[in-house]
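A.,

Following up on our hallway conversation. Structure tokens first:
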């Protein structure tokens, strides 16, 4: 009986230790996320997070957000600000 109580107490005390491994942050439009509706998420080989949204393509490097949108005055801009898919080729190009 004492052994069973000891094992149970040990398990109860050790279980919370698993929760200290990762810190989580919630990003919203209130604290920096440019758009709250995400259509697609991709993480590239360098660890950068790319988010496809109705408002454009968002690049997140862990610190800052950068948004790429359709701009007909720029030759290399997105053809549309609505991004539903993200692909990366073998050269690392998105």
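Then the amino acids I'd put at each of the 94 positions:
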């Amino acid at each position: 009986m004492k052994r069973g109580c000891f094992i149970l107490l040990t398990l109860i005390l050790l279980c919370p230790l698993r929760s200290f491994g990762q810190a989580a942050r919630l990003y919203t439009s209130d604290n920096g996320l440019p758009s709250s509706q995400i259509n697609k998420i991709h993480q590239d080989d360098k660890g950068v997070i790319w988010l496809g949204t109705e408002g454009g393509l968002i690049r997140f490097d862990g610190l800052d957000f950068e948004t790429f949108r359709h701009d007909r005055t720029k030759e290399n801009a997105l053809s549309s600000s609505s991004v539903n898919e993200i692909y990366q080729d073998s050269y690392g190009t998105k």
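Residues 65 and 72 are 22 Å apart (CA to CA). Curious whether your intuition agrees with the design.

B.
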